[in-house]
Each structure stands twice: as structure tokens, then as C-alpha cells.
Amino acid sequence: MTEQTPPPPTTGCRTAPVLKQRGQREVFCGLTGIIWLHRKIQDAFFLVVGSRTCAHLLQSAAGVMIFAEPRFGTAILEESDLAGLNDAHAELDRTVEQLLARRPDIRQLFLVGSCPSEVIKLDLSRAAERLTQQFAPKVRVLEYSGSGIETTFTQGEDACLAAMVPVLPSSDTRELLVVGALPDVVEDQMLGLLADLGVGPVRVLPAHRIDDEVGIGPNTVFALTQPFLGETHAALERRGARHIAAPFPFGEEGTTAWLAAIAAAFDVPEETFTRVTEAPRRRARAAIAQAAAPLRNKSVFFFPDSQLEVPLARFLTRECAMSAVEVGMPYIHDAIHGPDLDLLPQGPQISEGQDVDLQLDRCRAARPDLTVCGLGLANPLEAEGLSTKWAIELVFTPVHFYEQAGDLASLFARPLRRKAILSPRVEAAE
């Protein structure tokens, strides 16, 4: 790649035809978001109202040791609950009372719906209202759905944050609200950059604790750090907040464009912006150039999974010299994904939704150098000789902003490096 970021394409993909498909999907469920949210919101507890399968998913995904006491759990729906032999609301109230008696440090309790609770039509909204009245003001009880019936795995965070927005206090203060859960080290880097630019006050959603939460009002402006927050975006706009549209902060280009949009909204002088960003931009470009060598002139195919696909395709094509064959997204939201689509050069098929068999046919026909997909598709495609990258790894790994730009490129380069190392050994064995 060149030392400088290439100029924007003459024609991007924002107005490109979108292949819309509805069929069998291959995605993780939204319960997975609890794995990073329970670490981020430190006075919260996430109680999944679901089956033993839900409990096993969370335990295995989080790698929780048997003697650990994490801030999530499952209220198990037994056969008698599913058959309607028990009063599910009474059973839930009893479970919550036991939990709060055992864990007096809980300030926020999230009742998380699952496939089983939705199938039996358990009204968690009514339960949350009832329990809030019972335990307020010490504990706030909210509910959202993490069911995999209609959601992808990152939409669990979106549903959680969207549930928080209506109960945030009102405020007329002009503030920047940065929305989306980030690893603490990445969040600190982001806040440091914004402070050096002179942008403030800056608040974060989700806050670490309920006492740190921000007020929302007509003078609030917000910037998203995650491209899967469509419902949260809508909830904030209903409260009167204004969205700062920008590409997402992946890589040097995305981070600079994200910061520039905020700087423009807060009238940051151009010389200040250049002074603050020049050194980290240079480091990011150097790190990407080194890590992305195996990616140059290679092709990539994105299955719809994490909703990070559009900004990641922009990063790989413009900063790592890859070509995109297809960029699949579970959902495309113009106000959120439009700025990245503007920068994505025309060429790839943009698809929304999924019919997994048809998409597998297109992937096999294209034989891309790298396929980004979910866990359920990766092993079969690897067996067919296609190199894959797990989409879920891109959510669990720190990849935002300048200092992680090289790491982001390395995540995509690793499968190709591994294949290059293994191929001579396979040929020798044959």
C-alpha cells in the first residue's frame, strides 16, 4: 500500500444495487453480546430467561470457571414452564428476589429474552416494570431480547443500549456522547485523542456504572463506534440527540475520518487536528503496511454475520490493497453505513440478509483468497480449500482506532500466512 491513504473513489457503493435475500441464515444469537457487556457495565447483572442450552452457550463462550461468580446467569425454563404448568412470572420474580438478596452490589438488572421465552410469549417488558417498582430506587430493571430467531449476535448489544436510552435523564448541556462498548484500553485511547483535540464534555454509553450515566437532550450530539447500533441510533434521535455521521474508526483512514467529523462539529481548528493526529496516523500507516503484505492483490468475500462487514471491506480494499468480491450485511442502515459505502469502491456485490445456500454457491464459484464468515461455515469451507476468518473474532479483539490498526490487518493476514506455511508441507506429504 502507499504511504498516504488513497483519495475517495469517484463512485462509491452507496447507490449500488443491493441483493436482498431472505432464507436460511447462519448466525450466532444475540445472547453472545453479554460476554463483553457484563465486563463493560460493572454494576449490572444479565439474567437470561432461557433454556439450559442458553446457559451452556454463555458458559462456553465466556470460558467461565466453575468457581467464578460472573455477572450473568440463566433463569432456566424447565419443561413444566414451557408446557404452561407453572406461573412463569411468579417463578421469575422468585428467581430475581433470590439473586438480588445474594448479590446486593447489583444496581442494574437486565432481563434478557431468548428463543424459549419468546416462544412461550413470556412478557419480560411487564416483568421489568413490575420488578422496577419493587426494587427501585436501589435497582433498575430493564429488558431486551437476545433471541437468535430474528437477530444476529451483535444486535444483543444494540438491543441492550436501546433499552437504556429511554430511562436516561434529560439534559440541555451540549455534550458529545460516544456510543458503543469498547475495550477499556481502546476507550482510554479514544478519550485521550478527543481531549487533545479540545472536544468536550465527552460521555460514553454504556457507562461503567449507573451513577456515571449521561443526560440526553436536544444539545446532545453522538457518534457511534460500532456499526450495528441501529435501534440505539433511533432511540437517541427520538430523545432529540443529533447523530454525527462518519466512517467507522477502523484503520488509519476510518479513524481520521471519524475524528474529523467530530472535530468539525466542535469547531476544532485544522492546525490542532493535524498536530494531534499526525503522529498516530503515521504509526498506523506503518503498522498496516507491515501487517498487510500478505493481503495485497488478494480477494475477500464477506458473509453477513457481525454487521462490521461494510467498514471492514472499506478498510481492506482501501488500506490493504485487497479486492472485495461480495460484502454481505445482515442489515444495511444508510445513515449509519452510508459514509463507509461512499468510500468503498464500486465492484463488489453488496448483499443484505442471507439465503445461506445461495451465498455459499456464489462463494464457491468466486473462490476468494479469504472468506470472512461465522463459525458454522468456517470449517466446511476450510475443508474445501478456502481460507477463512471467523467474524466473531473481529468483535472480541481490540481493533478500533490508530493503535490497533496494524492488529486489525494482522487478523486478516494470519489465515493467509498460515496457508502459505502449510501448503509446502501438504505438497511434500503428497
From TrEMBL:
It comes from Sulfitobacter alexandrii. InterPro entries: LIPOR_BchN/ChlN (IPR050293), Nase/OxRdtase_comp1 (IPR000510), Protochl_reductN (IPR005970). GO terms for biological process: light-independent bacteriochlorophyll biosynthetic process; photosynthesis, dark reaction. Protochlorophyllide reductase is composed of three subunits; BchL, BchN and BchB. Forms a heterotetramer of two BchB and two BchN subunits. Component of the dark-operative protochlorophyllide reductase (DPOR) that uses Mg-ATP and reduced ferredoxin to reduce ring D of protochlorophyllide (Pchlide) to form chlorophyllide a (Chlide). This reaction is light-independent. The NB-protein (BchN-BchB) is the catalytic component of the complex. [4Fe-4S] cluster binds at C29, C54, C115. It catalyses: chlorophyllide a + oxidized 2[4Fe-4S]-[ferredoxin] + 2 ADP + 2 phosphate = protochlorophyllide a + reduced 2[4Fe-4S]-[ferredoxin] + 2 ATP + 2 H2O. Its EC number is 1.3.7.7. The keyword Ribonucleoprotein does not apply. The keyword Ligase does not apply. HAMAP family: ChlN_BchN. Keywords: 4Fe-4S, ATP-binding, Bacteriochlorophyll biosynthesis, Chlorophyll biosynthesis, Iron, Iron-sulfur, Metal-binding, Nucleotide-binding, Oxidoreductase, Photosynthesis, Plasmid. It is an enzyme of class 1 (oxidoreductase). One of its GO terms (molecular function) is oxidoreductase activity, acting on the CH-CH group of donors, iron-sulfur protein as acceptor. The gene is bchN. Pathway: Porphyrin-containing compound metabolism; bacteriochlorophyll biosynthesis (light-independent). This is Light-independent protochlorophyllide reductase subunit N.
